[in-house]
User: Fold this.
Amino acid sequence: MGIGDRHQKKDVEAALKRAEAAGLKVIHAGKGHRWGRIVCCPCNRRHTVSCTPQNQGEEARDIDRFTRRHANCA
Assistant:
């Protein structure tokens, strides 16, 4: 992620950094209410990250869950 690609919610931003550290690809491509995606390159699974989550803690938990499930792929 570049400097201007930070998520505005701190919990979600921390989860995105953990996903990147685990070897997953984080893509900032805002379109509508979507902030971007997390992509597991080996198995080509994707997780959409919301720009305006209703509950930022739950969004961060979902990102961490995706990261745990795909940490072995990367």
User: Anything to note?
Assistant: Strands lie at 25-31, 34-40, 45-50. The two ends are 17 Å apart (CA to CA). Residues 56-70 form the longest helix (15 residues). The longest strand covers residues 25-31.
